[in-house]
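Lecture notes, unit on binding sites. The following record was shown on slide 14. It pairs a sequence with zinc ion.
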Amino acid sequence: MKNSETIIDVLIKNFSSLPGIGRKSAARIVYHLLKEDSFFTDNLSDNIKKLKETIKPCPVCGCYTDAHECGICSDATRNKKLLCVVENPQDIDIIESTGAFDGYYHVLMGLLSPIDGIGPEKLNVYPLISRIEKGEVEELIFALNPSVEGETTALYIQKMLENRGIHIKVTRLASGLPVGGDLEYVDRMTLTRSLLGRTSI
Ligand SMILES: [Zn+2]
């Protein structure tokens, strides 16, 4: 903290570094917090602390969980033959909300982007390959954003499987998704249709 900087300035900077929050919104939040009572602000800061202390990646799929394994991975009634690859944990909630998929998931925690120096070692790629090597998965479904990074990632993983002599069905969500768009902004109907009409790659 610089000498002239107050905690107000520092917190505005903290909030404006969050996704989707510009400086104006950050200032609005900080001035709002000043009006709240200390019960509210204490609770908020405690919960933020608890978030990092209690939520860990699921050792199987990589999504966040407060249990040893996440609810989906520990549900034995789902279809072991289907494995859906997503970029972020939030994508699981979106796909689950369609009710059109009963397999398991694997979260990459990002997409390959050689330009930004993001290679497979920075993502949850190798554990995915080990999971498939166990032999239960019959279809790998890429539910990645239809962007250059999404395509690169899907092709890279497919190549890795081929190089290891693993020949399983590889599909992707059918067209209908906006190119370069986020799964987050796709309506449920479109996503359900593209899940049901997935195509081989
Ligand atoms: Zn899991």
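Take-home: Residues 39 and 45 are 10 Å apart (CA to CA).
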